């Protein structure tokens, strides 16, 4: 099988490439250049896709004796991931750019090019597993990335390979060291890859500009002014610009964002609890929309936020009724539905949260 391996320059994708070679496949490595100024995208463990990362990926390819290329996807990444991220925050939402990158770049643009060039599959270093064509959680639940892959269609999964999903991260590092790969101890990337400073508010402010509004409590009393709703997310406690806690001495949290009126609502912790989620643009990894109510577990963040639920399909939307409330759920987040399975939790599908109530 001809396999294209997306090589980020990190330990996970490096071991994924090595395992594909061991399995006897005809392997080619590719590094995605996702920035027009790649030298600026890594500061220690922050950022990715830098010149340093491209160099690390090339050295691993040399050790594995496989062809290696760098493909420029910077324009597509800016349009489909960065611009989408900025626009979503401007609407008062809280998006996950890793979800969009997998959906629109790695398993859409990259996979399409790979198939057009005659490759049979795209392999990545994601921590997830495929069993019988179905997407499952990784063995290492602490590193599991099935959440950010839940937007993939059945056709995309048919051409995907996740070689390391059956192995804990610690063993992946040990394997890399045994293979003599220089990235064995390389730090994992953290935060948002295209914001290496980690200052999301400053990044958004430079692109959205000042859009002044107010911070109000449940009674509508104006507590403060702000420079834009992009500086806030549901559940946020710090950096609200208000003088202190509520009259009862308890901290206040962002409970709602109205981008049209530039109003940020704050309230108590209990005000963050929601029992029903409505999701748009659902994708079901089997390729078939389930009929009738579906008993499942729902996850609303890449790590954590998992509760039992019942999902109902409503003509192009998903309504998820939670068995117990969740806190701090925001429009723009991705909800992922899982079903318990002997092979590990199976991903049923996903949707983008439109409303949480």
TrEMBL record:
Site (Interaction with tRNA): 126, 333
List of catalytic residues: 101, 193
Catalytic activity: S-sulfanyl-L-cysteinyl-[protein] + uridine(34) in tRNA + AH2 + ATP = 2-thiouridine(34) in tRNA + L-cysteinyl-[protein] + A + AMP + diphosphate + H(+)
Annotated SUPFAM superfamilies: Adenine nucleotide alpha hydrolases-like
Record keywords, A-Z: ATP-binding, Cytoplasm, Disulfide bond, Methyltransferase, Nucleotide-binding, RNA-binding, Transferase, tRNA processing, tRNA-binding
Domain tRNA-specific 2-thiouridylase MnmA-like C-terminal: 277-353
GO cellular component, one term: cytoplasm
InterPro entries per record: MnmA-like, MnmA-like_C, MnmA-like_central, MnmA-like_central_sf, Rossmann-like_a/b/a_fold
Name the UniProt record assigns to this protein: tRNA-specific 2-thiouridylase MnmA
Native source species: Mycolicibacterium chubuense (strain NBB4) (Mycobacterium chubuense)
